[in-house]
Amino acid sequence: MLNSSPISDRSVQEIPNCDHCEAEPAVLQNLTDDILSVEKAQIMAEFFAMLGDPNRLRILSILSRQELCVHDLAELVGMSESAVSHQLRVLRTMRLVSYRKSKRRVYYQLLDHHVLELYQSVSEHLDE
Fold first, then answer.
1. N or C: which end of the chain has fewer CB within 10 A?
2. Are 97 and 110 in contact (CB under 8 A)?
């Protein structure tokens, strides 16, 4: 949810003209209406910080291709099953992955297309 900053509570006439810039008060008012709320900015910062772990990104890169169980993920990334399980718990908490049970196995997959799009977008950006 986008909230306004305290400046957006002012009327357009109250926003002073800057002697150094050419922005009109009405333009500034429109911009203040679109500023992220402090709360949403904090949540987004935590989300991106969570993605700052290379092991989590490697797990996401695999899950972007196919759902897998913890055992197979651990083999692929060269980590213990316990360490992979821990990373998956973090990813589940941030609602990036989900799981399904099939008999005695638990299979993990990306939660939705937003996660895949985010992963692909960042990967493509870095390849440019």
1. C
2. yes
For residues 6-30, one letter each, b for 16 or more C-beta atoms within 10 angstroms of the residue's C-beta and e for the rest, the string is eebeeeeeebeeeeeeeeebeebbe
| Partners of 105 in beta bridges | 102
What share of the chain has pLDDT > 90, as a percent? 49
Classify the phi-psi angles of 106: left when phi > 0, otherwise alpha if psi is within -120 to 50, otherwise beta.
beta
One-character DSSP codes across 4-41: --GGGGS-GGGSPPPSS----HHHHHHHHHTSPPHHHH
What global pTM score does this model have?
A: 0.71
pLDDT (tens digit, 9 = 90+) per residue, 54-70? 999 999 999 999 999 99
> By three-state DSSP, how is residue 79 classified?
coil
Query: CA–CA separation, 19 vs 14, rounded Å?
Result: 15
Q: At a CB cut-off of 8 Å and minimum separation 6, what does 80 contact?
A: 74
